[in-house]
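Researcher: Here's my situation. A collaborator sent me these components and asked whether they could plausibly form a single complex. I don't have experimental data yet, so a predicted model of the whole assembly would be a useful starting point for our discussion.
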Amino acid sequence: DGGITQSPKYLFRKEGQNVTLSCEQNLNHDAMYWYRQDPGQGLRLIYYSQIVNDFQKGDIAEGYSVSREKKESFPLTVTSAQKNPTAFYLCASSMRGEKLTGTEAFFGQGTRLTVV
Amino acid sequence: AQKVTQAQTEISVVEKEDVTLDCVYETRDTTYYLFWYKQPPSGELVFLIRRNSFDEQNEISGRYSWNFQKSTSSFNFTITASQVVDSAVYFCALLTQGGSEKLVFGKGTKLTVNP
């Protein structure tokens, strides 16, 4: 079945360590996104990528890095520079639609990162 | 710049009441898509509906209906005869297809349906 896979679902890390969150999709979608959600808050865009080997900063990119070496994969690294990394992270992908062609964003199940 | 505003942070209703969740968007692109997602307590985002900018027809799906009005840049969501299982956070989102393709979300509306 097609979809987006985020792993792991729960992740614990010590303060000061970098950690990489995985996001893989087999939907042949061009665009991929990473969002952060804090308790009781909305989704804030961290990074997004419209094509392979290209990505743009979202609203809260500081302390994060990404790569897009393959169309299917868009890993997010939470670096030690991120002051408050504990949060719920969601990955999404979507297709570039032509006019009048539907495009739908699909989401992974999320990774809950806790830094202790 | 693209922006989605969900002015209602929290709504609380009693079961069987109708409830409307508001969504106002901003974009300069002529081609865009609007979405509603439901986020239950488990955290995953459940897709509810997608609308493209060229289709202003309203849609009804069971107890759910959506009112898309380009003149007011709004895409409101109504739940008729609400049920306890409708309790969740609901997000409105905008995906633009112009020069800067980006999927942006509103801050969400937390809906609590009490028995």
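Model: Some features of this prediction you could bring to your collaborator: The longest strand of chain B covers residues 88-96. The mean pLDDT of chain B is 90.
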